[in-house]
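Submission sheet (multi-component)
Chains listed below:
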Amino acid sequence: MKIAVDAMGGDFAPGVVIEGLSLSLPLFPQCEFLLVGHREKVAFYLEKYGLAGHPRITQVHAESVCEMSDPSTISLRGKKDSSITVCARLLKDKSADAMVTPGHTGATVAATKVLVRTLPGVDRPALAASMPTKKQPGRFILMDAGANVDCQPLNLAQFAVMGSVYAEYLFKIKNPRIGLLSVGGEDSKGNDLTKETFKLLEKMPIRFVGNIEPTAAFDGEVDVLVSDGFSGNVLLKTAEGLAHSTVAWLKRAITRNAMRTLGGIFAQNAFRELKAIGASDEIGGAPLMGLNGVCIIGHGSSTPRAVYNAIRVAAECVEFGVLDRVVQNVKECGVAVESHKVPASSAAPAPEK
Amino acid sequence: MKIAVDAMGGDFAPGVVIEGLSLSLPLFPQCEFLLVGHREKVAFYLEKYGLAGHPRITQVHAESVCEMSDPSTISLRGKKDSSITVCARLLKDKSADAMVTPGHTGATVAATKVLVRTLPGVDRPALAASMPTKKQPGRFILMDAGANVDCQPLNLAQFAVMGSVYAEYLFKIKNPRIGLLSVGGEDSKGNDLTKETFKLLEKMPIRFVGNIEPTAAFDGEVDVLVSDGFSGNVLLKTAEGLAHSTVAWLKRAITRNAMRTLGGIFAQNAFRELKAIGASDEIGGAPLMGLNGVCIIGHGSSTPRAVYNAIRVAAECVEFGVLDRVVQNVKECGVAVESHKVPASSAAPAPEK
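Outcome: structure written.
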């Protein structure tokens, strides 16, 4: 199995990525790695981590990098030689079975949508983010977390199927519970999009549990929460924003006087535990489901451990046969589209992570 | 000034509401109260709190109560004699200048949209929820938090104006910063609705600061965050869900061993402080802006202090001249609609809180 790894992606590239790769090499002997990035910079870190000349690492040069401040279309228009674009091309050519990038989410979505395209029957790929639930270590999959800002009911029906496949892999369960993100739990609740989607989902051979509010999703009532990419991204970013706020509030509250500060020192491991729930180190990254290739997008602030886990998820998704399962399930659920060309609109800028 | 108070609204009605009213009476001598609810039940609690026969309290009987489990349309279809519907009718008849309910949000939206209708020039009312930012005691106003699940760009433009008026009152500032909820900070980001709305907002004489992600809103970059009611409700409920999860996570982490538990005891006031940030006691409730009458909707779990503050906000909104300011600003911003009849679609079920 060949995995293309974007060495230049993320805030601490390429050092962090190559350190993550060094953790992966002994554990995934079945994998060969195409390490994509600037020749000299990558070579320097390969040397540093004692990986120079490693028989299962092949360097692939990429001249430029999609910076976090770049627009999403950069991977297709301004920087066609970026590490993300090169990874997408390797995936397209089937030179790689999977790609992993802790880089620019929007640029990755844009490049892969156009270059790699979708699987037969799939209209659009969607980002499957995993969120922690109240009952730890529970999680639910948010699908789509931001790849498609405007969706049709059929897209959401396909997200349900793809999310279901990913949940079967990630949670090692059969028949995951699928909920539709809405503004109330009753069947009649929602906007035009969710009402039409509801009608599709209830007819499909999936375990559809109905409309679900974010509060219920955090309570652990679903395994997959289906949403358009706009609302899904609002959910994701709200959780991120509030988590940052909570850390700031807690820090200030706990340092307000000596007694509290002492308490904070005694309980510091509890705070570390709390912080780890929010961190995505053990999840590694979010797959962009529905592409004709496995693509795992990590967080820009990925640690080596997160990179290692993103590589693990990529390898496991290939071995699980995620692509074939998506094609088959989309067909069996009666929601396959005939042509799977990328519609013009979906090449538009996608959100950054 | 006359304020209609829904005595039956909320989880602990009517006791909590009447206790909240008892706090308000000495502080708002300019207010007379129409206390709406079941005759005997309300009388019992008036007696209990020593308010029986109070010269500034008039009891108004309402036979039924909209339960939290009822659909939103209940106030118009099944329970036309509910305390919410009676309050809405008092507001419609101008028998009351304002109404306050800690009851069913969806039922209140439905009843007031149809009975009270919107102000001249305003197409639809919107719920203005206030959210805490990272920098305490900072807050931002989320507008619409859930009254309209499907919106047009003009609706969002009006929400911006109405949110601006409310921010001027609540934060005591001039020219509040208005942001548009989107999936990225750049001007080009967003879905069809936000892109069209962006074009309207940038032409209006308001302080429009562009597209804003939830993370930036929690960082305190705006005073008003404009959104359709679906995405706004997703934001609100995600914050609520994650806050509950965080409390559960923290409790478990802190009680895992004796050292942490001891630390937790030392720091317990810090946790109380943290919890208070999320509570809406000092805000009291969210106004439904754009109605032809002041309507404050409190949380179902309102404490007497929250009820007191909801009454305070209602009285202050009347004194601030919120209604006239909305009419004037909507006109000055060039976003007034000619007819302000309630469109058929907006009488549809609105989300519950």
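Remark: Chain A touches chain B through 69 residues (CB under 8 Å).
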